[in-house]
Design goal:
Helix 8 packs parallel to helix 9. Helix content is 52%, strand content 12%. About 2% of the residues have low confidence. Strand 1, helix 2 and strand 2 form a beta-alpha-beta unit. The protein is of the alpha/beta class. Strands 3-2-1-4-7-6-8-5 form an 8-stranded mixed β-sheet, with helices on both faces.
Length: 394
């Protein structure tokens, strides 16, 4: 009787992990076999030739970002785009006076709000309330983001295709240690599964928090609805509820600084896990209406919020496969097969140029990082909306 109960629990746990594994496997296969659309974007910067130049408001919410913000803005304002068609705004939250003085010397708008409790959502809301001019699109970039000089030129071409919501290709700008490399690889896996593969079968891309572009009118009307530290997930839910398609543009890179120490990794993942649970709980009550209206994008996005984090999925599956090997060779087979399929799915979700032997050495960091994520589960408060800042290493 006892062994029957244990077996039932073991099978239920396997089914739980298999659901997340099957989702990853399906979209990895889609990314590999679905016909790749031909990009309509220019492959390199040419002379300004567009029939119409959209105006862009570019927001940089910057909380305690003294180390990176000035260089990021200096790099951005050298855009190969008409100067009168874009304007950068920095929302300086808890930054040093000397940093603000340097920013004031640049051709941007500097806003210096004082929030009792800071968050990226509040910074964006404050900026939209202060800016009186009207633009065609609003772009959200993080303080550490670096883009190419043709960023707005290419984005202008994508906007001309009629997209209201665009997620650019966020990728790593640093690989200084194992943690940073793994963080960068994880980002590219997300790009493959949750963005590229989704678009290839007509579903909306996931947002990622920066490198985002929205129709200005839509954003101004909806930004005040944000209330948690998972503003990108809230924006996704709002877009999908309203039937707005999210386009992923792989050819426009946004270089993002990856975390490179254990504490920053833990803080970042704690924020993500909290946001994921909050998003899931907020979206579940809307599922009956989504089913009734056949809103496949919203249903798919809700399923995403229920997925087990990939690194935890790998470690849990491997641990159970090893344990079951000593208990029952019959029981263990399904665990080893699940582990194999998960590993293959994630491997082929990594871009070819990143599939190298260095991954094997970096994998040694995974158990420690998973332990950090498990500790985060104990800290999750689904009602907490406080912003957890990820600092940059010096």
């Amino acid at each position: 009787m006892l062994w029957q109960i244990i077996h039932i629990i073991e099978v239920l746990f396997w089914l739980l992990l298999s659901a997340s594994g099957a989702y990853i496997l399906f979209y990895t296969i889609v990314s590999l076999i679905w016909r790749k659309p031909v990009s309509k974007l220019s492959s390199k910067v040419k002379s300004l030739h567009a029939d119409h130049y959209y105006s862009f408001l570019v927001l940089f919410p910057a909380y305690n970002e003294d180390r990176v913000i000035v260089s990021s803005i200096q790099q951005f304002i050298s855009q190969y785009y008409p100067n009168d068609r874009f304007h950068a705004v920095v929302v300086s939250d808890h930054m040093k006076p000397e940093t603000n003085d340097k920013l004031r010397e640049l051709p941007i708008t500097l806003l210096t709000p004082t929030f009792e409790k800071s968050s990226k959502a509040k910074a964006m809301q404050y900026a939209m309330g202060q800016i009186k001019e009207t633009y065609d699109y609003v772009v959200i970039l993080d303080a550490d983001n670096v883009v190419n000089s043709d960023f707005l030129e290419k984005l202008n071409e994508v906007c001309a295709m009629g997209h209201q919501a665009i997620q650019c290709h966020r990728c790593a700008k640093n690989s200084n240690n194992n943690i940073a490399v793994l963080d960068g690889i994880s980002e590219e896996i997300n790009n493959t599964i949750f963005r590229k593969a989704h678009n290839r079968i007509g579903l909306s891309s996931a947002l990622i928090g920066s490198g985002m572009c929205f129709d200005y009118k839509w954003f101004k009307e909806n930004v005040y609805k944000l209330s948690t530290a998972g503003e990108d997930r809230e924006l996704e839910a709002l877009l999908l509820k309203q039937g707005v398609y999210i386009h992923y543009e792989e050819s426009i890179p946004v270089f993002d600084e990856k975390v490179s120490n254990k504490d920053n990794f833990q803080n970042q993942r704690q924020r993500w896990m909290t946001a994921q649970i909050q998003s899931l709980l907020n979206m579940l009550p809307c599922i009956p209406q989504a089913i009734k209206s056949r809103n496949i994008n919203f249903i798919d996005k809700t399923i995403q919020q229920a997925l087990i984090p990939r690194s935890m999925l790998i470690v849990f599956t491997f641990t159970m496969a090893t344990l079951m090997t000593f208990i029952s060779q019959v029981w263990c087979m399904k665990w080893w097969l699940l582990f194999l399929f998960i590993c293959l799915s994630l491997y082929y979700a990594i871009p070819k140029e990143l599939r190298n032997y260095s991954i094997l050495s970096n994998i040694l960091s995974v158990p420690m990082l998973v332990w950090k994520m498990i500790l985060n589960i104990l800290k999750i408060d689904r009602k907490n909306t406080d912003f957890i800042h990820t600092t940059h290493d010096k």
